[in-house]
Write a structure and sequence with these properties.
The two termini are about 30 Å apart. The protein has helices at about 1-10, 20, 25-55, 60-70, 70-85, 90-115, 145-175, 180-190, 195-210, 210-220, 250-265, 285-300, 300-315, 320-350, 355-385, 390-405, 510-525, 530-540, 545-560, 565-575, 595-640, and strands at about 455, 460, 470-475, 480-485, 500, 575-580, 590-595. About 60% of the residues lie in helices and about 5% in strands. The protein has 21 helices and seven strands. The chain is mostly helical and about 650 residues long. The chain has a three-stranded antiparallel sheet with strand order 2-1-5, with no helix packed on it. A two-stranded antiparallel ribbon has the order 3-4. The chain is globular, with a radius of gyration of 28 Å. It folds into three domains: about 20-125 and about 145-275, MFS general substrate transporter like domains (Growth Hormone, Chain: A), CATH 1.20.1250; about 305-410 and about 510-640, MFS general substrate transporter like domains (Growth Hormone, Chain: A); about 440-500, no CATH class.
């Protein structure tokens, strides 16, 4: 058998690989670490930009959450088969093809920017060539509105094609990611020295840890650039990133990640199917593993499909395996909610920009999560925690996480006073609010215009027109509107009647940094359970089931955590919306205002709910682990000597 392996494994007979490639597993580890890092960079970048895409194309948080997790469908359909038949194919080439497919999917995700119209952030009035649209109070007819509605109809009809492109792109991304991790890890494990294999795999994960952080930092830079920088001169833009109408260049980062992915995929086409194998130890466990791999290679696709139900039933009859994986799903759901919507939560709760929120996540929160995972692995190695104690340890950690999360419910800002939405100056007004008031009755205002201004009376209005402002002070050197003046709805004791562009400042913006550091610290504590729970899954199944069990584990986590969790968090966030943007055609757009208190309670409350569910599952797992260990000890005692 060894002679046969030596002949077929050294090199491909059609191509003579240089020895420094055919036997250099370290080079493969370096290349694979870079590809995994870039893959996670793309994934994190897209999550960091999904809220901006939501704002530009008028999506709900539920829709954007669904879009962000669509790639899990393509991944879930193939992950089990790939995990099981990994050693029967040319793994490096399939990894390279997967990387190129992932690169193509990332490129497709940027395509909606190029087929959509230029972003128009002020359309209620026309103005002239040298003066920007101001959305001020003017007694004009609806001529311009009808022209805009005609354009809006065209743009709305284009949304269906954009949806199709995004769905197809995300499915391609999901399929492209399938071979990268399982094939790479199994390739390293097969051809590295047994003593070096754990080290190389640890290096792979260590390099990959930087991917999400780099993705959010890239998002911070890209969202600081204007979305149409390729179509207009940025110097002529009369917006700044702090303006609520600002849309960042989300598409540019996708092109960058697509290019890096393509470059990182090329080296895999130069690695052989099988490297010169390092010397393996001849222990009984190694021999059994080789026999199991040989059986796996000899099994045909038809035989695998025939045996698939039996293997599934065998795993489902292992209650410890199922309960622990479901507990992992609860932890992964919290991570999915944080990675998808934490930037939006910080932006809406503490009035920060999307760019800066991504910077804080990439530089503080994600490194905290990675640190927790590393510390969890070191804890397992240092204390060699037995299987029966891991669920109890994890349950205690999550209990600490819940207790640390409770103070966060009180570290937030109340919703600002917004005229016609949650505040009315009319004493005789009913409980329902209306944008139309006596003070702006003489103005022809469009309900679909969103250009917030903050009055000197600290009341916010959704547009200068709704505030009754008839004039504006424009700085020609900066091309920025400084103030809106002569506002009939704004009256103070000193007879001031002007408003500043943008949202009113929140009263608790100073809580932004404490909140970020608290969330990062809590995330680090929660991540201490990641490695122990993963090891529990490996210990809960028989040696010959491990490969298949890992595939099923990832499948369950994708179907019950990474796929539904972003959409569920998005639906919870949508339920706190108090004002939806509208197009003049009547179609609903993205949410412009949230009830901040409700947003904070429900967003954090859902995380606490997942953690409570995880604790309950871990308590059951602790009970099952005790029985599992007792049966294993009994089986060992009854074995013949």
């Amino acid at each position: 058998m060894e002679a046969k392996l030596e002949e077929s494994d050294r090199v491909n007979p059609r191509f003579k690989y240089p020895k420094w490639i055919s036997s250099n597993i370290k080079l493969f580890v370096l290349c694979h670490g870079m590809l995994q890092c870039t893959q996670l960079l793309h994934s994190a970048y897209f999550k960091s930009s999904i809220v901006t895409i939501e704002k530009q194309f008028g999506l709900s948080s539920f829709s954007s959450g669904f879009i962000s997790s669509l790639h899990e469908i393509g991944n879930s359909l193939l992950i089990v088969f790939v995990s099981y038949f990994g050693s029967r194919v040319h793994r490096p080439r399939l990894i390279g093809m997967g990387g190129l497919l992932l690169s193509f999917g990332a490129f497709l995700l940027a395509l909606p920017h190029f087929i959509s119209e230029r972003y128009k952030y002020s359309v209620a009035t026309v103005g002239n060539a040298s003066y920007p649209n101001t959305d001020t109070c003017q007694p004009v007819n609806q001529t311009h509105s009808l022209k805009h509605c005609t354009k809006s109809d065209i743009q709305f009809n284009m949304m269906s094609s954009m949806w199709a492109i995004i769905v197809i792109a995300q499915l391609i991304v999901g399929i492209g990611t399938v071979p990268i991790q399982p094939f790479g890890i199994s390739y390293v494990d097969d051809f590295a020295e047994p003593s070096n294999s754990p080290l190389y795999i640890a290096i792979l994960f260590a390099i990959s840890v930087f991917g999400p952080a780099f993705g959010y930092l890239l998002g911070s830079v890209m969202l600081h650039l204007f979305v149409d920088l390729d179509r207009v001169d940025p110097a002529t833009i009369d917006l700044k990133p702090s303006d609520p109408r600002w849309i960042g260049a989300w598409w540019l980062g996708l092109l960058i990640s697509s290019s890096i992915l393509a470059i990182a995929s090329v080296p895999y086409f130069f690695f052989p199917r099988e490297m010169i194998p390092q010397k393996k130890s001849g222990s009984e466990s190694d021999i059994l593993s080789e026999m199991e791999e040989q059986k796996m290679e000899e099994m045909t696709i038809r035989e695998f499909i025939k045996m698939f139900p039996k293997m599934i039933v065998r795993l489902l009859l292992n209650p410890l395996f199922i309960v622990v994986v479901l507990a992992q799903c609860s932890f992964s759901s919290v991570v999915a909610g944080l990675s998808t919507y934490l930037n939006k939560f910080l932006e809406k709760q503490y009035s920060t920009t999307a760019s800066y929120a991504n910077f804080l996540i990439g530089s503080i929160t994600l490194p905290g999560l990675a640190t927790g995972m590393v510390l969890g692995g070191l804890f397992m190695k240092r204390f060699n925690v037995p299987l029966v104690k891991i669920p109890w340890y994890s349950a205690c950690v999550l209990s600490i996480v819940i207790s640390l999360t409770i103070p966060l419910f009180f570290m937030g800002c109340s919703t600002q006073k917004i005229a016609g939405i949650n505040y009315s100056k009319d004493v005789n007004s009913s409980s329902s609010f209306n944008l139309k008031a006596d003070c702006n009755a003489h103005c022809f205002c469009f309900d679909y215009t969103f250009n917030p201004v903050c009055g000197v009376d600290t009341i916010e209005y959704i547009s200068p027109c709704q505030a009754g402002c008839t004039h504006s002070a424009f700085n020609h050197s900066t091309r920025m509107i400084m103030t809106y003046n002569n506002c009939s709805c704004i009256q103070t004791s000193t007879n001031e009647d002007f408003a500043h562009p943008g949202h009113c400042k929140v009263s608790c913006s100073y809580l932004l940094y404490p909140m970020v550091f608290c969330i990062s610290f809590i995330g680090m504590i929660a991540s201490l359970t990641h490695n122990p729970l993963y090891m529990t899954v490996l210990r809960a199944v028989r040696q010959e089931q491990k490969s298949f069990a890992i595939g099923i584990q990832f499948l369950i986590m994708r179907m019950f955590a990474w796929l539904p969790a972003p959409a569920l968090f998005g639906a919870v966030i949508d339920s706190t919306c108090i004002r939806w943007n509208k197009a003049c055609t009547g179609n609903r757009g993205a949410c412009s205002y949230y009830d901040n208190n409700l947003l904070r309670k429900r967003y954090l409350g859902l995380q606490v709910g997942y953690n409570i569910l995880g604790i309950l599952l871990l308590l059951i797992a602790g009970w099952k682990a005790k029985k599992f260990s007792a049966r294993r000890v009994a089986a060992q005692n009854t074995e013949p000597v």
